[in-house]
Amino acid sequence: MQLSEQEIIRREKLTKLRELGINPYPANLYPVNHTSKQIKDDFSEGKKVIIAGRLMSVRDQGKASFAELQDSEGRIQLYFNRDVICEGEDKTLYNTVFKKLTDLGDFIGIEGELFTTKVGAQAVRVTNFTFLSKTLRPLPLPKTDDQGHVFDAFTDAELRYRMRYVDLVVNPQVKDVFVKRAKLFNAMRTFFNEKGYMEVETPILQSIPGGAAARPFVTHHNSLNIPLYMRIANELYLKRLIVGGFDGVYEFSKNFRNEGMDRTHNPEFTAMEIYVAYKDYNWMMEFTENLLEYCALQVNGTTQATFGEHTVDFKAPYTRVTMTDAIKQFTGFDITGKSEDEIRAAAKSMGIDVDDTMGKGKLIDEIFGEKCEGNFIQPTFITDYPKEMSPLCKEHRDNPDLTERFELMVCGKEIANAYSELNDPIDQRERFEDQLKLSEKGDDEAMFIDQDFLRALEYGMPPTSGLGIGMDRLIMFLTNNQSIQEVLFFPQMKPEVKPLAISDEAKVIVDLLKAENNQALVQLKEKAGLSGKKWDAAMKELAKQNLTKVVVKGDAKTVVLN
């Protein structure tokens, strides 16, 4: 492992601490009795406190120093005075341990008393401090000049997502997003629990990936010697519980879909699904708008949320528009009574990329997604979907070509999906068989036939309405984040590209070739500015690691990256 100069120095400090008899990673409990927030909320001059956290800044003033400690709730100023900390002749704890062996980012425990500085700041006068954890890597701490300009901020998105633990330390605003995320889950649970609905758990590993049209992740169970699928939805299991006699069940489920990744999709995501017996989708629309109004208030203290250039208001009630009317409004095309071929031709005429594997439902979905979806900014229920789009949904009571389904759109994105659930086992079997035909045509997102679920329906399921909400997308709207990666602690990332384990001289050559590959050897050597000995050693190193090669054509020699 190649270490930077700072990492080497920190390891040397670690050794010196141990030589002084100080354990940099003590096992015993540290008796914290205050947080930075508690100190500020209940400040009392002379009050004794014990706090702990990371050392985030130090202003050395010789025999005294001011510093900042960061804990889980914020920062508090510390005042270190050499003669207070070291009452006797031995000043090692201040002069050596604090000033020379302590680094920014180290976890320390502080005993002290509260006082107000000359400029009126609340602070802790340190009487003793204890090492709790020595950090071996320097934090990428932002710096602010006298004009308030920030430098060296930790803003690179890939680094932030890959090293969320660092992001949370140096960018405190990031933590607020996840605090609000926790508030959202708690608010939703409270709303459901107060109505008497029960939280349950269903399998993540499933023999049939049912409940949605999506491409699953596949694994293998060695003992049973069968393929298993990671859950794409929990719908069919929750409905089994309604069959079993529960009036209302809900689950926050981790779902997995082996599909693309972008700013609004992660292969692993969190959904909430709730099913309530003896209800329909009209009841569920009112339930949903009241739920989201309540959640917005609990998370932000207001029903309004800023999302990009839009101010979204989650206050109920929400506008309701049928899918047929939405498509007609934004394309001029009426899908009513149209055949699959007519809809395909219409989609192509609109410039939408479609193919022969797409059935009627998917074609309509593509038209709506391309031409209509982005127009709905304020919360809007899109209702009454064509039957082909909703194989688990009950046929519309007034129109057999439609289903009793709605999706809630906000800022052009779907955040909720709900049905009057299909409880006719014969109709359900026919719908599944239609999905099987789509699969045979090449649609790899068509649903599987779940025979056990059909058997459950044959035992009878009462009239039921179900609702699914994408929790990650909802918290994006409530925290003004355009990217789903910002609201996931650990979003899925491409494998990390490890830095080249090569000498500094070899790195100079590689960097020159990255800027312009295939350079004349003589010119490259001149640009590198290395002595003949260092040049030869670096070129041998790169050739040995198969990173570069020299191409000879006649008298000309060029160097290229492999």
UniProtKB/TrEMBL annotation:
Q: Where are the transmembrane segments?
A: none
E.C. number: 6.1.1.6
Residues recorded as binding Mg(2+) 2, renumbered to this chain, are 414
The record ties this protein, via SUPFAM superfamilies, to: Class II aaRS and biotin synthetases (SSF55681), Nucleic acid-binding proteins (SSF50249)
Entries under PROSITE patterns matching the protein? AA_TRNA_LIGASE_II
Q: Does the keyword Protein biosynthesis apply?
A: yes
Which Pfam family would be a valid example here?
A: tRNA-synt_2
Cofactor(s) it depends on: Mg(2+)
Q: Where does Mg(2+) 1 bind?
A: 407, 414
Biological process (GO) annotations held by this record are: lysyl-tRNA aminoacylation
What molecular function terms (GO) are annotated for this protein? ATP binding; lysine-tRNA ligase activity; magnesium ion binding; tRNA binding
Q: Where in the cell is it found?
A: Cytoplasm
Q: Which InterPro entries match?
A: Aa-tRNA-synt_II, aa-tRNA-synth_II, aa-tRNA-synth_II/BPL/LPL, Lys-tRNA-ligase_II, Lys-tRNA-ligase_II_N, Lys-tRNA-synth_II_C, NA-bd_OB-fold, NA-bd_OB_tRNA
Q: How is the cofactor bound?
A: Binds 3 Mg(2+) ions per subunit.
Q: Which UniProt keywords apply?
A: Aminoacyl-tRNA synthetase, ATP-binding, Cytoplasm, Ligase, Magnesium, Metal-binding, Nucleotide-binding, Protein biosynthesis
Which EC class is the enzyme in?
ligase
Q: Which GO terms describe its cellular component?
A: cytosol
- The source's superkingdom equals Bacteria
| Reactions the enzyme catalyzes | tRNA(Lys) + L-lysine + ATP = L-lysyl-tRNA(Lys) + AMP + diphosphate
Q: Where is the Aminoacyl-transfer RNA synthetases class-II family profile domain?
A: 181-491
Subunit comment for this entry? Homodimer.
Q: HAMAP family this protein is in?
A: Lys_tRNA_synth_class2 (MF_00252)
NCBIfam families assigned to the protein according to its UniProt record, in alphabetical order: lysS_bact, PRK00484.1
Q: Which family does it belong to?
A: Belongs to the class-II aminoacyl-tRNA synthetase family.
What is this protein called in UniProt?
Answer: Lysine--tRNA ligase
Organism equals: Flavobacterium sediminis
